[in-house]
Amino acid sequence: MRPSRLQAARGYNSRVDAPNSWFGSRTRRWSRRWVAACAAGAIAITACWPLHAAERVTLTNGFHLACDHQLETGGKVRLYTSPGSDNFLEVDAAEIAEVEAIPNRRPPPAASDLATVSAKASAVPSHAELKELIARAGAQHNLDTDLLASVVRAESGGNVRAISRAGAEGLMQLMPATATQLGVGDRFRPDENIAGGTAYLDALLTRYHENLAFALAAYNAGPAAVDKYHGVPPYPETRGYVARVIREFNRRKIAEMRSRGAIAGNRKSHSAR
């Protein structure tokens, strides 16, 4: 069982006056990191890879990452997703299964493919369809669907065509460069956006050792800001964002508990009869 992120999140909540959080093993439904993903086959982020990337790294759990360069230190390997030194995923050297060079050019998509993608991008998913997309992404990355739904709500309010002032786009508000690194070809296509955003949040949770507050802050302000301040940066927008996601996550979990309690009460009542 991986360590709970309960203590770190509660410590953060006390500073931003957010309610107590529902964290621990249920946030990332594991018995061991990546077990569910490995059992399912692989965590795949295929599609397109960034033009500048030099390598395609495959981890032992099946996760693929477009890597610009690497740095090995003390048995750990930092996989940098951009030419700079800010954006990286740190893994154990033993977790790297394969490294292969990837071409620096991609063939242009066929006209029929572009038409298909365009049609899908314009489609607005129903509530049930959105829930299914989130559930699928959560299952792939072993993340709680209520957490992902809370991020979607805070990021875009469920608006497929949402665009922020900074240029982030889609349901999970992916910046163009981040989306490219994650292999997201169309940021307004709900399934690609959610898959990319979930993979990014998953990578941030790994980077910050399952500290949810830090991962959410990095999702909002970027990993460089979290690294600079060694925690949640003192930006009002970022602190407010982290608190909103945590509150929404708590609300969903409380509602789930009440619903289960009501169902259990009804069953006992019928049994007594």
Strand content: 5-15%
In sequence order, what are the helices and strands, one letter per element?
A: HHEEEEEEHHHHHHHH
Rg over C-alpha atoms, rounded to the nearest angstrom: 19 Å
CATH topology of the largest domain: Lysozyme
The mean pLDDT is 75
The beta-strand count equals 6
| Mass-distribution shape | globular
Structural write-up:
The strands form two sheets. A three-stranded antiparallel β-sheet has the order 2-1-6, with no helix packed on it. Mean pLDDT is 75; it is low at 1-26 and 29-53. With 273 residues, the chain is mainly α. A hairpin with a 2-residue loop joins strand 3 (69-73) and strand 4 (76-80). The chain is globular, with a radius of gyration of 19 Å. It is built from ten helices and six strands, in the order ααββββββαααααααα. It is 49% helix and 11% strand. Helix 5 (145-156) crosses helix 10. It has two domains: 1-42 and 125-273, Lysozyme (Orthogonal Bundle), CATH 1.10.530.10; 49-105, SH3 type barrels (Roll).
Quick overview of this protein structure:
The protein is mainly alpha-helical and 273 residues long. The chain is built from 10 helices and 6 strands.
Explain the layout of strands and helices.
Layout lengths: L5 H11 L18 H6 L14 E5 L4 E4 L1 E5 L2 E5 L7 E5 L3 E6 L9 H12 L4 H15 L3 H12 L19 H6 L8 H18 L4 H10 L1 H7 L6 H37 L1
Antiparallel strand pairs: 1-2, 1-6, 3-4, 4-5
Helix pairs in contact: 4-7, 5-10, 7-8, 8-9, 8-10
Main attributes?
mainly alpha, globular, three-stranded antiparallel β-sheet, disordered N terminus, 6 strands, single chain, 49% helix, Lysozyme, 2 domains, SH3 type barrels, 273 residues
